[in-house]
Structure formats: structure tokens, C-alpha cells
Amino acid sequence: MEAKDIPGFFAKPEEIDAEKYIYLDYYFECIGEPEAAAAHLCSEQSTAQWKRVGIDEDFREEFGAKVLELKVIKELDEISCPVKNVFDGKTYACKAKIAHPHNNFGPRIPNLLSAVCGEGTFFSPGIPIIKLLDIHFPKSYLNQFEGPKFGIEGLREILNVYDRPIFFGVIKPNIGLPPEPFSEIGYQSWLGGLDIAKDDEMLADTSWSPTPIRSKLLGAAREKAERETGVPKIYLANITDEVDRIIELHDIAVENGANALMLNAMPVGLSAVRMLRKHTKVPLIAHFPFTASFSRMQHYGIHSQVITKLQRLAGFDSIIMPGFGNRMMTPEDEVLQNIKACYEDMGHIKRVLPVPGGSDSAVTLKNVYEKVGSTDFGFVPGRGVFGHPMGPKAGAASIRQAWEAISSATPIETYAETHEELKAAIHAFSKRK
Amino acid sequence: MEAKDIPGFFAKPEEIDAEKYIYLDYYFECIGEPEAAAAHLCSEQSTAQWKRVGIDEDFREEFGAKVLELKVIKELDEISCPVKNVFDGKTYACKAKIAHPHNNFGPRIPNLLSAVCGEGTFFSPGIPIIKLLDIHFPKSYLNQFEGPKFGIEGLREILNVYDRPIFFGVIKPNIGLPPEPFSEIGYQSWLGGLDIAKDDEMLADTSWSPTPIRSKLLGAAREKAERETGVPKIYLANITDEVDRIIELHDIAVENGANALMLNAMPVGLSAVRMLRKHTKVPLIAHFPFTASFSRMQHYGIHSQVITKLQRLAGFDSIIMPGFGNRMMTPEDEVLQNIKACYEDMGHIKRVLPVPGGSDSAVTLKNVYEKVGSTDFGFVPGRGVFGHPMGPKAGAASIRQAWEAISSATPIETYAETHEELKAAIHAFSKRK
């Protein structure tokens, strides 16, 4: 790219038609002039400043991505993580806001991903280190997506629970336990007060616990628990599988009484989720395997809130995500950004229920509630329910007791004096906090 | 985990049934004792050392992942990239080989990904930094996959080319050019000697270049070029799109004369590729958007050769990958590992054609050929054909002339004295080398 070509990849926000673009926030470290690097980034990810030989044409105005803002944060001695095969020169840390014309690719998740975190982003000349920090969509783009079918409000209607968090639990042992004892402990957890008993994200349709058998047993156990407790319950079945089996597994599991379905979003692919969204009769819940592989590094990869927003776009009603505390190795501000991404205005795309998880129990509920700052979240212990020393029914009861304490502004230790399940939970799990 | 539980996650290779496991090579940086960290890694990614309350059971023998080898490379002053929320203690860089029972999840790509690069890998206690370096499959696992339908040999049969590299070219301008002029320059490139003219990975089914129209024009142009040159040609159409449209787009494009199809593997999802593989009538070619987001960091994420192997498993016949040289910011040994992963023995899973790409032209062909060390590769210029100063026909001719020079052991500069297209290519592209 020559110096005279650089201004063609810059624009002022008021100069462009806002509805024609999606907006991308990048952090990058460049070797060489930041303006040239940012122009290259736009060129590589949209139209590569191409013209046919012998023909005077310029696709940039209609098809070019454009830098709306470029901020040089500071000059660096070297890039922050080593990358081989880079060029020499002065090194800068920068942030850029880029407008990318969405008509280049249309309302297609795989093509959107290819445009914003594809070759044009990660192989732009002179930019060895780059992270896609955030993404924003105009109404015109959002209107071409269906989004969640149920959302927070739909989930609350199914459960008839409006004034408190939704209590999930991951049935454990997760791997190896046959369907019969698995359904028995799920049943116990509903009796104790869980709203949603769920499969682990590692447990899908296996030879030793086939989905048709497991969902039938859990569906029956759910209905029994509903009759006995008089309140609605959800069995959340993990139907993560090959793309050409998920519609069939949806039908089997739902017919058998699973009334919400989980998919490991990135392993299955967001586009497959969008396909299932068109078919589903029940809420869809996302789990997060794979995402940390590209989101954990501070200065490289893709920020997890981008994936949270794309999961909403694909049609998930609730998103399980790495939560608070040391265990999940995720900075608190990142957890909060992901929660915000579940709530924030995305036009007609419904708000979805965030489920920040990680080594939770009755002991951690207050902290999570205070950090979220709302009752619109899901709480998802594993051990905190199924490893409770008095068993899963008591484990679930301990969570509900903790919430009763919190909502009546009573210290849980005080409330535990008259509630033995909570007392046992505090004893068992406090050291793990 | 208590100290007494650690040995249950270690095994000697001769103690396990080799066919029941897949094998994983990890690099990790742990805080605390390496043996405990490696045991945790196994526990988290398979059965979390769980037993029901009050029941004496141990799922580890059948369902537990096991450390076969653990090598402590060195003690570190600190982890090599900052990760928030980690624990305190001595820090070690380690490598481990882990055997993971594939019956835990079965022959399903999304569940395989969830097991080997999911929560259990990236959220294992005390291991903030980890990279999945390699993966190996036993025959019993491979036998449950179809793999490539054509492979290298199938592609060569279609083209009737057996003794040289396959010459691809990315038709440019890639974004914004309407189908008619786009097909005209594709046609020119076939006349000049390209085997395969292809869509850019960013160009799919768009409003300004719909697949039905583009594939019809390119299909007709391909047949015309075949008639005029007397040799088979391939139009490689990019059908990257939502999962529930790729079968339909396959049918439209193939009916119209596209005789190979490209998909952006990770954005579409490997499982969707496996679905298409069952249906396809033509070879499937992978492109690499998104992969760098988790593969570039030396010590974190997932090595690209893991994805290369999974792409073979999913059924791709050829894999376009970041190639040699500064432009693609990929270490040479990583490019070579990816090429090797296309060739190496995977039972009945066919060998696939590696296409290492990045700013290639007649000038770079010799270097790529020498590094690959075989004619079993694809060469994929963009500008080197479509930005050739005499036009795409001359651009394609310059590549073929460069190969004539190489295969007759003539310096390309000497050969260029009597071949003006090659001469012009050397003049135009040498400075870019």
C-alpha cells in the first residue's frame, strides 16, 4: 500500500451510512506506522484495494472497511508475546474502531466470523498481535436474525419463577454413571429445590448413557418431581453431537421430557445452533468449551464478549460462562462484560440469562448475586449440590436456604443455625471458597 | 485432589488397551507440583474423580484420562503470558502425553473437541497456560470416520495431473466485482495454465455476487476453457454459509459446473463439513479463517496441526493453510508440521493435498517446492496471477513457466529470457519476495 492509498481506508462516523456497517473494536500491536497498519487491516478484511489490470476501478467506497477511530496507546519496546516471522521497525500498541460493510458477507454467521476474525484480521501486514475486543451491530443487520426464542422472560415463564435467580445444578458423577442412578440423583436435586438439573457438558449421547434412555428416565423423574413438589422443573439435556444429528436428538430428548437443551456452542458451531433455533420447541442453553483457547490472552485472539453476543444472535436463551473467583481464571471485568452482553439492547434480539459458573455452592451465592447486581442470572453448582455431604436433595436445599437468607438480609451463618442443610454446606464448602 | 488420588491418573503405556484411547500432547505451565497438575488435567477432562455421596465407586480405570509421560522442562520465574486470577507457588513448564478414553464421547467431532480442548483443558486447577500440541488416533477410532472422499489421488485423477504441484489461483478483485467480469478473469487464468481458479475465502453467496449466478458463469467458463485447452480444469466455489444452506449450495454450485467446493472450516464448523462430506459429489477444500486466533501463541491455545488432522477426519480433500515466508507470520516448522499432518498415516483416512499459501508468485514457487520436498502440494497465488502486469492469462502462464524452469533445473531468470510472462512476473514480484 502506498501512502496516498491510506486515506481511502479512513472515514468520519458522520460520513458513512451507519446502518450499512458493523462496528469492530480491535487492540493491536503493529510494527511500523499505526495509520498504515490500520489501513492494511481494513484492506485485508474487506476489499484488498484491488483493481483489474488495465481497468480504473475502486471498490473501497462501497466495500472497504474503514477506520473510524485510531488511538496510539504507546510505543512498545517489543510486541507483548513473541510471534515469529515479523518485520522490523518501531512498535506501537493501538486501539481502532473499524466500520465493516455487512453487505460484503450478509447475515451469515460463518461469513461474519470469516470477515471479522479471519485471515484479514490475523494476517494483516505488520500486525502480529491483535485482539477483537468487541462487536456492535446496527438494527438493519440484527433484523435479519431470529435471536432467542424464549430469552430470560420465556425461561421464567416456564419455571414460574420471577423474583430470584434460576438454580441450576450439574448432575455428577458426570462421566461413567449409568442412566438409572444418574436420573435418581437428578430427581433428588429437584426435590431439594433445584429449578434445572443438567447434564455435564462432557456427557452427551454415549454408548454407556444413550440420550434416548437417559432423557426418558430424566423426563419421567422430572414429571414425578413436579407432581410431588407442585412446581415446574427443567431437565436440561446436553445434545452436543454432530450437526446432522442435533435435530434428531432434539426430537428424541424433547419427546422424552427434556424441556431445555444444551449445546457446546463453539464445538458444534454457532451456525448449527442457529439451525436448531429454527426448529426447537424448548429453550437452548450454551456451554463454553473451546472459547478460552482464543479468549484468555489479554492482547491476542477474540474477547469472550464477542462470542457471547454471537451466541445471542445464534439463538441461545441462556449462556453458561466462566464465572467469578480464582478457579475460572477469568478477570472479573471480563465476567461482568459477558453478563452485560446478555442484557444489553440488541433491538428485537431478546435478553438472555447469564450463568456465570465455577465451583459454586451455598457459600458463594451471595457474592455472585452482589457482583451480578440483579436476580436475572443462573447459578450452577456441581459439587455444591451433588457433593453435599447429606446428598443432592440436601445440596439443592442448601442453595435455596442460602437464597432465603440473602433475600431476607440474614447472614447465612445465622440462617444456618436453624437449617441443617445450609449448615452442612457451609461446613463442607467454606474452605473451597 | 489428595496426594493418594494422584497415582490413579497415571499409567504406563503397556498397562492400557492402546485402541481404547486417543493420545494428546500438551505443553503447560503449572503453579504447584507438576504431578498434581497433570493428574488434575486428566481428572478435569474425563471423570472428575467423582463418587456419589455414601457410595464407594471409582470410575477412573475405565473412564479416566491418564498421564503416560510427564516431563518437567524447567522451573519458571513466572508464567510466560499474564493470566489473571491464578494461584501462588512455584511455576514449572512441562510437557505431558495423556491417554483419553474415546468411549467417553465417541466418534463425534464436537464432543471430541469438548474433551480435548474444552473446560477440562483450559480450566484445570493450577494450569493457567496450556497448549494442545498434537493429537493421535488409534485405528479403532479412525475406523468410525469416513475421511476424504477424493484425497490427493482423487484430485489428481480429476485434473489428470500426476507429476507436478497443482496450480491454484484466487480470483481477484475478491470483494465487489460482479459475476460477469469475475468469470472472465477466471477464464483467462485457466487459459494461461491454472488448474484451479477459486473464489476468495471472503467471497460467498452475496447479494452482489449470488452463488447461483456466479457458479453458472464460472461453470460455463470452465467448460469453455477445457474445450479450448484440451485439459481438465476446476472451478473451486466457496460455499461457506449457514450450516442449513451448505447442502443446497453444494447442489446449486455443482449443478452449475463448480467441480470442487471450499469451506472456511472453523467458521462453518468441522462437524458441518463432515455432514457435507456424506453428500458431496466433488472434492472439498478447507480454508483457514479463525484458526490463528487460537494457534499463534507459542505456549497457549491449540497447535494448528491438531486442526489439520481434524480437517482430514472431517473429510476435506485439500487444506489451504498459512505458508512460508514473513507474510504469514507462521514459523517454518509449524508449516512443515501441517504439511506432514496431510500426508502421515491415518489408517484408511486418505492423504490430503496441502496448500501452503501467502503472497506467492512465479518468484516464490521454487522455494515452496524445495521446502515441501515433494510435488504433492497446491500452490495458490492471488496477486501473482491476477495482479500480473500483463493480466491473469499471463499471470497463470508465468507460474507454469516457473515450473518448467524448476523441473528442467534451469534458473528461472535464464528461462525468463525467452518467456516474457515469467520475465514480467520476476520484474513485478521480486521486490515483494
Short description:
The structure is a homodimer of 433-residue chains. The first copy, chain A, has helices at 34-45, 60-63, 109-116, 119-122, 139-142, 151-159, 179-192, 211-229, 246-256, 265-268, 270-279, 292-295, 304-314, 332-343, 365-372, 383-386, 392-407, 412-416, 420-429; strands spanning 21-31, 66-76, 91-101, 129-136, 166-170, 196-198, 234-238, 260-264, 284-287, 301-302, 318-322, 353-357, 378-379.
Written account of the structure:
The structure is a homodimer of 433-residue chains. With 433 residues, the first copy, chain A, is an alpha/beta fold. Chain A folds into two domains: 3-142, 2-Layer Sandwich (Alpha-Beta Plaits), CATH 3.30.70.150; 151-432, Alpha-Beta Barrel (TIM Barrel). In chain A, 39% of the residues lie in helices and 18% in strands. Chain A contains 19 helices and 13 strands. Chain A has helices spanning 34-45, 60-63, 109-116, 119-122, 139-142, 151-159, 179-192, 211-229, 246-256, 265-268, 270-279, 292-295, 304-314, 332-343, 365-372, 383-386, 392-407, 412-416, 420-429, and strands spanning 21-31, 66-76, 91-101, 129-136, 166-170, 196-198, 234-238, 260-264, 284-287, 301-302, 318-322, 353-357, 378-379. In chain A, the strands form two sheets. An eight-stranded parallel sheet of chain A has the order 12-11-9-8-7-6-5-13, sandwiched between helices. The termini of chain A are far apart. At the A-B interface, α3, α4, α10, α11 and α12 of A face α3, α4, α10, α11 and α12 of B.
Key features of this structure:
homodimer, about 425 residues, alpha/beta, Alpha-Beta Plaits, TIM Barrel, 2 domains, eight-stranded parallel sheet, five-stranded mixed sheet, 19 helices, about 40% helix, lyase (chains A, B), RuBisCO (chains A, B), RuBisCO_lsu_C (chains A, B), magnesium ion binding (chains A, B), ribulose-bisphosphate carboxylase activity (chains A, B)
